[in-house]
Design brief:
This protein is α/β, with parallel strands linked by helices and 152 residues long. 26% of the residues lie in helices and 29% in strands. It is built from 5 helices and 7 strands. The model has no long low-confidence stretch (mean pLDDT 96). Bound molecules: adenosine-5'-diphosphate and magnesium ion.
Length: 152
């Protein structure tokens, strides 16, 4: 069983669909770090992830709020964007630990800004530019992460 996964995403719609597929493969609370340059598709994929769990409506980038919460039928999803975090210690003040629970999935854009204050991820997800298109790479770091990859 491999702890790596790779797939091509030919357009934004495919990125959304992949996000949906990913959330449906998460049986247990899952923490996912999202890597990739600005505009690579991290927020687009997260939109699919959240919509895949039943959210209807917009998923906006939490660039200024740092985190956007979603209360869905069976899961809470916390979408973080730490791009504008100046000091990782701020995460301590916002009670970061409470977000990571047995009933929540957490997706974190720019996790490197929160080093030392975030739990280790079940999955590292990277979006790379391939010309105008994208590829998604997943690496599982935990048993739960492996289980997710296996279900994709
Ligand atoms: P990020 O959160 O990584 O900064 P966004 O999701 O906000 O990126 O923006 C990604 C942009 O790229 C959007 O304009 C989206 O329509 C586009 N996009 C997403 N996935 C693909 C893809 N697979 N191929 C081409 N364009 C894509
Ligand atoms: Mg984004």
């Amino acid at each position: 069983m491999s702890n790596l996964f790779k797939e091509n995403l030919v357009d934004a719609e495919q990125t959304v669909l992949f996000g949906q597929r990913l959330s449906n493969a998460c049986e247990f609370a899952t923490c996912i770090y999202l890597h990739g340059d600005l505009g690579a598709g991290k927020t687009t994929l997260t939109r699919g992830f959240i919509q895949g769990l039943g959210h209807v409506g917009n998923v906006k980038s939490p660039t200024y709020t740092l985190v956007e919460p979603y209360e869905l039928a069976t899961w809470q999803v916390y979408h973080f964007d730490l791009y504008r975090l100046s000091d990782p210690e701020e995460l301590e003040f916002m009670g970061i630990r409470d977000y990571f629970s047995e009933t929540s999935h957490c997706l974190v854009e720019w996790p490197e800004k929160g080093v030392g204050f975030l739990p280790k991820p079940d999955l590292d997800l990277t979006l790379n530019y391939v010309g105008e298109k994208r590829e998604v790479l997943l690496q599982a770091n935990t048993e739960n992460g492996l289980r997710v990859l296996n279900k994709l």
